[in-house]
């Protein structure tokens, strides 16, 4: 028994405390009754819960302090000299505040508290269009951190107009990091979120992804294609919209660019547009695209490359769906 006491570890956080409760409940279901909790154990548990609650309050206070920094009015940059340096210091403080908030809001309770404190409205209204790119992308990153897997916060961000601003940043911001971070936030608002998808469609989001895949920014190209593939897999009913806007032709043109990671997602998206959708199939079979020869050549290039196996699988699958069946159909017609 003494050895058991020595090896028993006290939980270090709320998750550990909850795990302790689950284990205690599981033990209670067994044939042997659990031993009574000692006074020492009860005291420790009360203190642990008190400390954790205090820690949560401390984090709320930290968020309030960060928001106070972000709410400060900046000096006018036209005054120059020493005041320019002061402005630089203020921007540095704000960047630090954003980074701290992003870290704190990995905790879902903190993300919800930030919404209650008005932090998300501050991001959307003042910082997504801020003159400093370092503040724009940090605001977008914070929005993404809060929106990820949090329907309540997703609905709130949609209601305060975050999505059209993020799409605009993705589409046209001069800073490449801002564009990538904004697209990440868009993804967190529209994936597995029907209201987000409808807002995305109403603001012509697929055209933004199309242009993103044609960008010189490699990260933006890859992430745009990945989001397109994800949305097609989750919402096959959007095939008609995409084919009607010429997405097949645009994707094939991307495949003709120098080989890069974006091609795997592009091939996957083409497979989605072809599967059980005759119009997409007909577009891919258009001789003017030269897709059959392109896929044959790409398959040869990818053979034996373990790191490209998924891309090769998409490539072969697309070839079979588009052209092996076509040959079978043509043979059948000849007979």
TrEMBL record:
One of its GO terms (cellular component) is endoplasmic reticulum. Transmembrane segments: none annotated. GO terms for molecular function: adenyl-nucleotide exchange factor activity. Residues 83-93 have a biased composition (Acidic residues). InterPro entries: ARM-like, ARM-type_fold, Hsp70_NEF-Inhibitors, Nucleotide_exch_fac_Fes1. Residues 14-114 form the Nucleotide exchange factor Fes1 domain. Keywords: Phosphoprotein, Repeat. Residues 75-94 are annotated as: Disordered. Interacts with the ATP-binding domain of HSPA1A. Detected in a ternary complex containing STUB1, HSPA1A and HSPBP1. Interacts with PGLYRP1; this interaction blocks the cytotoxic activity of the PGLYRP1-HSPA1A complex. This is Hsp70-binding protein 1. It comes from Astatotilapia calliptera (Eastern happy). The gene is HSPBP1.
């Amino acid at each position: 028994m003494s050895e058991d006491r020595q090896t028993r570890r006290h939980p270090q956080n709320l998750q550990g405390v909850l795990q302790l409760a689950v284990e205690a409940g599981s033990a209670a279901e067994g044939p042997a009754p659990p031993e009574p909790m000692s006074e020492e154990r009860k005291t420790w548990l009360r203190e642990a819960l008190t400390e954790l609650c205090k820690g949560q309050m401390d984090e709320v206070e930290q968020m309030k302090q960060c928001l106070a920094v972000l709410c400060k009015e900046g000096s006018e940059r036209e005054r120059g000299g020493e005041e320019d340096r002061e402005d630089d210091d203020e921007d540095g403080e704000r960047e630090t505040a954003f980074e701290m908030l992003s870290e704190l809001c990995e905790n879902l309770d903190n993300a919800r508290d930030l919404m209650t404190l008005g932090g998300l409205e501050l991001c959307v209204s003042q910082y997504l269009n801020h003159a400093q790119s370092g503040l724009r992308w940090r605001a977008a990153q914070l929005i993404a951190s809060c929106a990820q897997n949090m329907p309540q916060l997703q609905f709130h961000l949609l209601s305060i107009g975050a999505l059209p601003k993020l799409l605009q940043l993705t589409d046209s911001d001069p800073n490449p990091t801002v564009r990538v971070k904004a697209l990440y936030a868009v993804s967190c608002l529209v994936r597995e979120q029907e209201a987000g998808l409808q807002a995305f469609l109403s603001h012509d989001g697929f055209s933004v992804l199309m242009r993103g895949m044609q960008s010189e920014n490699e990260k933006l190209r890859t992430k745009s294609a990945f989001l397109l593939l994800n949305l097609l897999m989750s919402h096959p009913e959007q095939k008609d919209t995409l084919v009607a806007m010429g997405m097949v032709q645009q994707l094939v043109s991307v495949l003709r660019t120098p080989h890069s990671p974006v091609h795997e997602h592009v091939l996957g998206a083409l497979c989605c547009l072809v599967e059980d959708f005759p119009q997409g199939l007909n577009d891919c079979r258009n001789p003017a695209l030269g897709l059959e020869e392109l896929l044959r050549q790409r398959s040869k290039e990818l053979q034996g490359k373990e790191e490209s196996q998924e891309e090769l699988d998409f490539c072969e699958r697309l070839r079979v769906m588009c052209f092996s069946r076509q040959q079978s159909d043509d043979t059948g017609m000849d007979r």
